[in-house]
Specification:
Structural class of chain A: alpha+beta
Distance between the termini of chain A: 62 Å
Radius of gyration of chain B: 24 Å
Strand order of the largest sheet of chain A: 12-16-11-15-13-14
Mean pLDDT of chain A: 91
Structural class of chain B: mainly alpha
Strand content of chain B: under 5%
Strand content of chain A: 15-25%
Mean pLDDT of chain B: 88
Number of strands of chain B: 0
Shape of chain A: globular
Radius of gyration of chain A: 26 Å
Helix content of chain B: over 70%
Order of helices and strands of chain B: HHHHHHHHHHHHHH
Largest sheet of chain B: none
Largest sheet of chain A: 6 strands, mixed
Shape of chain B: globular
Oligomer: heterodimer
Helix content of chain A: 25-40%
Largest interface: A-B, 66 and 68 residues
């Protein structure tokens, strides 16, 4: 039989070539040299944006992909520096009233849109009104909730003209808030409230974002956009700081597959990746130590315990036992091992410069044996054991990492409480089906995650408010809501922090979610790109105007 | 023949309508909403979007309005790419969407079809030769090693290691950017064409009428080109129609590996994002293409086999 031999030979050649190519890289101990960029002789940087931006309309954007592009195309009253600190944007100065509820912004002189028309206070007012307008249906209209009349405008009960944002003159804008908000200047830098041209939007209606019509206020403007292909931005010569914008063209690529992105990085086709293939993470960070970056992200990964079902609603001991039995160190170091940090709190240790780093569970620092002993005791107290086993289902959207985590946690519970005392099934669902089931509280335990938009603990505390749409466990403790409301209404910063601490302590002791880890994000940056200080950029707000070339 | 074609087109209209109806209701009844996301929309914003996309109306009304739009050549507005019309996403002015996939498919078929038929014919004529075995083995090999493997492997060799070609992206649709994706698709389809041609020619050459022709002393050339070629091509042609339509709407993996802005990526995106209008548009486009290619195949059948005409 010669034929099978030939087939086998061909197969063998294929396998050998695959393994040769892949192993030749992994066995190398030396650092990989930086790829020669295909843009080497041009003033262009090619950036993988992970996906195609679903929209370039600031108020309609709700994802990081659109935000990344919008930070280049538009600017708000304020902006962010590379350490996520607020800096002047289109407004170069502002005053705050003593009660912290009124902000008066002054625009820089002679500001212009990309078409050369003047940027005025009316454009700023219009941009805020668009955000709150229920007809526009912005997913981020919650940013206007704290503006005077914001809630009623969003609900369609008042016209947009009643929103507490007014133009005092062509260069001055006054914004009135319901209660003081220490993060309001950060909100003003968010892409959703970036300034758009009133004349342009009114002229073209919903078609104003088409590249032939679009007028921008940021450092760049759109030159070309092939959907799912590439989006090329070119420098906006009318931008107020154009002389300091070093890169003429930015080309965004929508590479969904991280391996394809890595290959294009190695071949020099792209200069900055969006992420890395996580299955090759350890190899890449060794080989590309001078180009690969792992950055702690302001984001939580946690499990919601469904508080609408009797099993959890009436059994705090069980909720605590399940949370304590998870070994977060094993989860982050052995199961994942991609730079994530264990999470023992409902917020992160990094938010607001570490002001809430001390909110960890007391048992977080206990030895593992002691944690397990108490978890077992609580589990038994909750009424479960070999004679009355607990049956649970973990729901997650179909994804290898989520599956790995669910399986690891199920096995941790079985080890802690005994294989006969707990039966865990995992149920993966396609994304939209999962989201709907989770929103309708149709689950036992559901995977959840939250990325903070800006440097305020409010990004996390809202997740546990009684009627908040982001509260997926349907947890409700009026005492918690009351303390958070008090914290929002105080203009005393220390009192605010103290009240939030108290509130978090209450919520954490109710154990409605199981915090698991704080995310990290990964990026490869070709050394030809300078000026991008990624390591302190926990919010991943990135602007191309920072980039420089060698 | 014209009458036959017209008849087939007329018959295909109810088929298409049935597909549209079935997919419309299936898509709308699938759990999940296009506007469900990690961050739930405010009730007013959701209401406004539902009204904009007519999702607040009863399903039968939505269906009738959709058919009305369709008659006017309007596929509606995308629910993922807010504000963008589906017509513009599928058939953009600047190379993208359908045009990318069309170019990819045409280049692939122009090379894969003659290559496959020639190799298959040569293998069939030289049964059990080393070339014949290579054709059979390569069909088995490339069926077992899909584009998911050949794609990244070719990128690793030709783009990352040798730096001869770009690792991905569309560029401006230039030769260099298209080369690897086209080669990968040729590798995926050509061996199958060769295999089917080989099988067909072997069967035909063993048939009684060819044996009779040989017995009558006809020269081999005449036997092949007059008597064997038509029946040999019949199964190959029936394979090519669906294959071409398949590449047009189904080159998802190749497009993903090479970051090409074609239809495949739009399809997977539409399904995961419940972009109802996009799913409908791609299904309709795929159905129309399949119907057209099947009609072409039937017409070719008639040319090749006069028996079918009767």
């Amino acid at each position: 039989m010669k034929l099978p031999r030939l087939t086998a030979l061909l197969g063998l050649i294929g396998l050998v070539s695959i393994s040769t190519v892949s192993c030749s890289k992994t066995n190398k101990q030396t650092l990989a040299t930086a790829p020669t960029s295909k843009n080497a002789n041009t003033n262009t940087i090619t950036v993988d944006n992970g996906e195609d931006a679903p929209t370039v309309d600031p108020v309609l954007a709700e994802d990081v992909t659109s935000a990344r592009v919008l930070y280049d195309l538009f600017e708000g009253l304020t902006s962010f520096d590379q350490n996520n600190q607020t800096i002047p944007g289109l407004a170069d100065k502002w005053e705050t009233s003593p009660d912290g509820k009124t902000y008066t912004f002054h625009l820089r002189p002679n500001l212009k849109f990309s078409d050369g028309s003047a940027i005025t206070a009316n454009d700023v007012v219009f941009s805020w009104q668009r955000l709150a307008d229920p007809k526009v249906a912005s997913p981020y209209n919650n940013l206007a909730l704290n503006i005077v009349n914001g809630k009623d405008v969003i609900a369609g009960k008042l016209p947009v003209s009643q929103l507490g944002v007014t133009a005092l003159d062509s260069n001055t804008i006054q914004i009135k808030l319901n209660h003081p908000d220490p993060s309001f200047l950060q909100i003003c830098a968010m892409p959703n409230v970036a300034v758009v041209s009133q004349a342009n939007v009114k002229k073209f209606g919903t078609k104003w974002t088409q590249i032939t019509n679009m007028v921008t206020s940021g450092a760049y403007k759109i030159q070309e956009w092939v959907i799912k292909g590439h989006m090329t931005l070119s420098k906006n010569p009318n931008y107020y700081d154009a002389k300091n914008v070093a890169i003429e063209k930015i080309k965004f690529m929508p590479i969904v597959d991280t391996s394809a992105s890595f290959n294009q990085y190695k071949s020099g086709d792209i200069d900055i990746t969006y992420s890395m293939p996580v299955d090759q993470y350890k190899t890449i960070i060794q080989e590309y130590a001078n180009q690969a970056h792992t950055v702690t992200q302001e984001a939580l990964y946690y499990y919601d315990l469904n508080m609408t079902i009797a099993k959890f609603a009436q059994n705090r001991d069980l909720r605590q036992a399940l949370s304590m039995a998870v070994d977060r160190n094993v989860l982050t170091k052995d199961v994942l091992g991609q730079g994530q940090s264990p999470l023992y709190s409902y917020t992160t240790a990094t938010i607001e410069g570490g002001k809430f780093a001390d909110t960890k569970y007391e048992w977080a620092s206990w030895p593992r044996d002691k944690q397990l002993a108490l978890a077992k005791e609580l589990f038994a107290k909750a009424g479960y054991g070999a004679n009355h086993p607990l049956e649970l289902s973990i729901s997650y959207n179909t994804n290898d990492a989520h599956k790995k985590i669910a399986l690891a946690i199920a096995s941790m519970w079985q080890q802690a409480f005994g294989a006969t005392a707990i039966k865990v099934t995992s149920a993966n669902q396609e994304w939209k089906t999962f989201i709907q089931a989770r929103n309708q509280a149709n689950y036992d335990i559901a995977r959840d995650g939250w990325v903070a938009d800006y440097n305020s603990v409010d990004s996390y505390t809202s997740l546990f408010l009684c009627k908040d749409p982001t509260n997926k466990s349907k947890y409700c403790n009026p005492e918690y809501d009351k303390l958070i409301l008090q914290a929002q209404n105080t203009s005393n910063p220390e009192q605010r922090i103290q009240l939030i601490h108290q509130a978090l302590e209450i919520a954490q002791n109710d154990y409605a979610i199981i915090p698991l880890y704080q995310y990290s994000y990964y990026r490869l940056i070709n050394p030809r790109v300078k000026g991008y200080e990624i390591n302190n950029n926990h919010f991943d707000h990135v602007m191309s105007k920072w980039y420089k070339l060698n | 023949m014209l009458k036959f074609a017209l008849k087939r087109i007329l018959v295909s209209i109810p088929t298409l309508l049935a597909i549209i109806t079935l997919v419309f209701f299936l898509v709308h009844l699938t759990p999940g909403n296009p506007f469900d996301g990690e961050r739930a929309l405010s009730p007013e914003a959701l209401k406004s979007l539902m009204e904009q996309y007519r999702l607040n109306l009863p399903l039968w009304q939505q269906y009738l309005l959709y058919l009305n739009d369709l008659i006017h050549g309007n596929f509606g507005i995308s629910m993922k790419y807010l504000g963008q019309s589906i017509n513009n996403l599928l058939f953009p002015d600047n190379m993208g969407g359908f045009w990318v996939t069309l170019r990819l498919s045409i280049y692939t078929m122009i090379i894969a079809v003659p290559l496959g038929i020639l190799c298959g014919a040569y293998a069939g004529l030289h049964k059990n030769s080393w070339f014949d075995k290579l054709v059979v083995a390569s069909n088995i090999f490339f069926t077992a090693v899909p584009t998911m493997v050949t794609g990244p492997l070719s990128v690793l060799i030709f783009a990352v290691t040798l730096h001869w070609l770009p690792a991905g992206g569309w560029g401006d649709g230039d030769f260099a950017h298209l080369f690897l994706p086209v080669v990968v698709l040729i590798l995926a389809y050509s061996p199958t064409i060769a295999f089917v041609t080989r099988g067909s020619i072997v069967d035909v050459l063993n048939s009684n009428y060819i044996r009779t022709a040989r017995a009558k002393g006809l020269p081999t050339k005449k036997i092949l080109f007059k008597h064997a070629i038509r029946p040999t091509l019949l199964p190959v042609i029936s394979l090519l129609g669906p294959m071409f339509a398949g590449i047009l709407v189904g080159a998802v993996v190749t497009e993903q590996i090479f970051t090409l802005p074609g239809l495949g990526v739009l399809t997977t995106n539409a399904a995961t994002n419940r972009d109802y209008n996009m799913i409908m548009a791609i299904t309709i486009l795929g159905s129309i293409l399949t119907i057209i290619f099947n009609i072409i195949v039937d017409l070719l059948y008639m040319i090749l086999d006069p028996k079918i005409k009767q």
